[in-house]
Amino acid sequence: MEETIEVARAAQVPQQRGEQLPDTAVRYAKERHWDVFPGAWLEAEGGVERCSCGEPSCARPGAHPVREDWTNQATGSATVARRLWSKQPNASVLLPTGRTFDAVDVPETAGFLALARMERMDLALGPVTLTPGRRMQFFVLPGAATKAPDLVRKLGWPPASLDLRVLGEGDWVAAPPTRVGGRGAVQWVRKPTTANRWLPDTEELISPLAYACGRERRP
To answer: Please, is 100 exposed, middle or buried when counting C-beta atoms within 10 Å of its C-beta (0-12, 13-18, 19+)?
Structure first.
C-alpha cells in the first residue's frame, strides 16, 4: 500500500510551460548548454495531422530528424538555434544524446515505480521526460550507453531480458513541448532546474531502474 502511494505521488506530472518551440529550443541551449537541432513537424491535411516527412507510416510523426547530417547540425549556440527555428517555427525540438547527457529509456509504469524508489532513497536525479508513447527517459551523464549492459548483468539480469535501453552517441531524444502525431506532447516529469544541473551517473540509478523493469516483465 505504501509503495502504491509513493508511485502515485511520483506520477504527478508538473504543469508544463506554455512556451513556443523556438523559444524553448533557445532556452535549452542558453540555460542548459544542451545541443539542439530542429526535426520534423506536424502538418494539418484534411483535418488530420501528418508528419512533414510525407511518409504515411512514419513511426515518429513530427518528432524525428529530417537531415542525414543532423549530428553536424546540432548546436549549443542560442543565436544559431534561434536562426534555425526562424526558418521553420513548428519544427520539433530534438536533443542529441552522447554529448552532455545520455538517456535511460524505460516503460512508463516501470519509470514511475523506479522514480518513487529513487526519491525514497534520496538519490540525486537529473531531468526526466515522459513521451506520448508511454516511455520515460532519465537524463544521466554521458557514457551510460557503454556501461549499462555490464551494470545490469552485475545486478543479475541478462540485459536483453529487460525493457531498458540507453540512448547515447548517435541517438537523440525529443524534448518538451514537442508533439508526436496525435498522441500529445513530450512532458517533463522532473523539469530541468538549477538543482539538477549536475547529472547523476548511470551507476547511481541503474539498480532501481533495473528492479522496476524486472517487475514489469513478470507475469
So the answer is: middle
